[in-house]
Amino acid sequence: MKKVNKKRMNLTLTVLMAMSMLITACGGNNGNNVNSEANANSGNTGKTPAAEEKLKITMWSQFADPNSKDGGFVGFYKALEATKAKFPNVEIEHVGVGGESYKTKVKAASAANELPDIFYTWGGGFSEPFIAGNRILSIDDLAKDGTLDQIVPGTTDNFIFDSKLYGLPINIATAQMYVNKELFEQAGAKIPETWDELVAAIEALKAKGIQPIALGAKDRWPAMQWNAILAIRMAGVDAVNAALTKTGSFDTPEFTEAAAKYKQLIDADAFGKHFVGTSYDDATNMFLSGKAAMMFMGAWVNGQIEDDNSLVKGKVVPIKFPTIPGGKGNADEWFGGSGETFVLNADLKNKERIWEVYKFFIETMSKEVFLAGSGSSAWKVDVGDTSQMNPLALQIGELSSSATGFSYWWDQMLNGNDTESMFGSLMKFVAGKTTPEDYTKELQSKVNQGQ
């Protein structure tokens, strides 16, 4: 199966448009309505709620904790409650399963043809097996109602397979370096803009007994993020996207040098001595408690950092990942994009009615996730007053407004088998069991060529 437009997400102008639409639209409705036109269309089935029969919709997501401060979780539960209020005759039965367990659950349910009516997934290679198995409904015909006019251009690219659309986007997510200014000041270190400045900061922080970077490699994907951004800086987003879509190669001098830079950080104990056995949660808590000076992570941590009970509230700034001398990438090439969605079961009953619920929910979640400080909205929504918004989200919006290219999460761009091969090779590498040269050759042979 060939995915359309997968070689590069056309989001260069998307972030500019999204931030312009969201931030400059303040005050239009004080945030009380998602969008007047969208609300007029949502739920427009020709019947009043009282006249409609009761309808039960089953929904699965990875948002298992309703008390989480993560912006994605906050946005999800606010959207869920808003949707229940909007459609009083619809019962939404939600099941949330956290972390990697969710992926396992969805894959098993797909194999048994026991998926719910609506379920959370990722674009790119992760969803390809579901589509190949006819488990997900194409929404091309349903979306002819004008819905796509409300969406920022380019943000549906990762949900198009064989020229058919299967999901609506939630947000535009980016990963960036978070820096604890207070710890940098204690170490007398400069906030880095270049690789040499990053290395110097690491040494200065270590000299003061401060762990330079929090990284929880036990969950694998945080370790992948470092490989990805270093590859983007060395090879550039076009080369990275080409390798991920098997139109290019991982076995190049640039990818090998990116791995060598990664090894340089590992050997320097930039991540501490036990990062391979450290979980994502433990690493995040290390940064949130002020015990590590930097963390490269997605914007979903903004809410936790700026929470009233956070020990680092007001002490953290996001920065673009430093540039590397001789690298083909630049500071305005980003790791991230639009790739999270909910999809509809291919065997869905009451498609038209559930579609109205679905699109209202997605649009509302897009707005609420942005307001919670986790990425930019993928919808042309009026978010109202942003004066009380998470300051980190606004800063990231400004930083990414000059973006020239994006490369999305590797574990979502690759399909299931290739993802596992990538993780297997990656974890051997970060554990020091393979060299940078052997690692990139293995990525090419096992992931790109499927050997």
Q: Would you kindly provide a written description of the structure presented here, covering whatever features stand out?
A:
- The protein has 451 residues and is α/β, with parallel strands linked by helices.
- The chain has two domains: 12-170 and 338-383, D-Maltodextrin-Binding Protein, domain 2, CATH 3.40.190; 174-336 and 407-448, Periplasmic binding protein-like II (D-Maltodextrin-Binding Protein, domain 2, 3-Layer(aba) Sandwich), CATH 3.40.190.10.
- 41% of the residues lie in helices and 14% in strands.
- Strands 7, 8, 9, 10, 11, 13 and 14 form a seven-stranded mixed beta sheet that branches. A five-stranded mixed beta sheet has the order 2-1-3-12-6.
- Strand 1, helix 3 (71-86) and strand 2 (90-96) form a beta-alpha-beta unit.
- Helix 1 (12-23) packs across helix 14, helix 3 (71-86) crosses helix 13 and helix 10 (253-267) crosses helix 17.
- The chain starts with 11 loop residues before the first helix and ends with a helix.
- The model is unreliable at 1-13 and 19-50 (pLDDT under 50).
What's a concise summary of this model?
This protein has 451 residues and is α/β, with parallel strands linked by helices. Helix content is 41%, strand content 14%. InterPro entries: Bact_solute-bd_prot1 (IPR050490), SBP (IPR006059).
Salient structural properties:
disordered N terminus, alpha/beta, 7-stranded mixed sheet, 5-stranded mixed sheet, 451 residues, D-Maltodextrin-Binding Protein, domain 2, 2 domains
